[in-house]
Amino acid sequence: MNIGKFKVAGFFVFTALVLSAGVICAESTVDKTTVQESMAAVGVESKKPDIYKDLNLTEAQKKALDASRNKYREEMKKALGEVRVKKAAMYQELYKEKLDTNKIKQINNDLKKLEAQVLDYRLQSVLDLRKILSPEQFSKLNARVANIMENRRKSKK
C-alpha cells in the first residue's frame, strides 16, 4: 500500500471519529450549556461553530450534519458498550484456570461482529458527510483534518 492510501484511510477514520465523538465518549450528566459557558469564560470556544463558519455551511447543512452525527449515536453507544463487555468477558475466560475454548471462540466471534457493526456505523457517517457537503466544503474539511492529524503526529514526537 502506498502512503497516499494510508492518508485517505486515515482521513476517513478521523472524520468518522470526529462525527461520532459524542457517541464514543460517554454522555455527561452535566448540563452542556453550563459547560459551554464555563469554557467560554476561560477563553475556550467550541470547535463546531468554527468548522461550520470555515465551511460556510447553510442552516440546512448544519441541521443535516447534526442529524447525521446523532443518527447512530444510540446504536454506536450500545455497540461500543457491548464491545467493552465482551472484551472483559474474553479476558475473564482467558485467565480462568480451566479454559473453555468453545466459549472463548464464541465470545471472539461476537466481538468481531460488534466491531464490524461499529465500523459500518462510522463508514455510514462518512458517507452521510459526503452527501451533505459540497466538494469544495469536503476538500476544506479534508485539509483541516489533515492539518490536525499532522499537528498530532508532531506533538507525539
Structural description of this entry:
The protein is elongated and about 60 Å long. Helix content is 82%, strand content 0%. The longest helix has 32 residues. With 157 residues, it is mainly α. Helix 1 crosses helix 8 and helix 6 runs antiparallel to helix 7.
Short description:
By secondary structure, the protein is mainly alpha-helical.
**So how many helices?**
8
Per DSSP E runs of 2 or more residues, the count of β-strands stands at 0
Strand content: under 5%
Structural class: mainly alpha
User: Averaging pLDDT over every residue, what do you get?
Assistant: 78
What's the SSE blueprint?
Blueprint: H1 3-19, H2 21-24, H3 32-41, H4 47-54, H5 59-71, H6 73-94, H7 101-132, H8 135-156
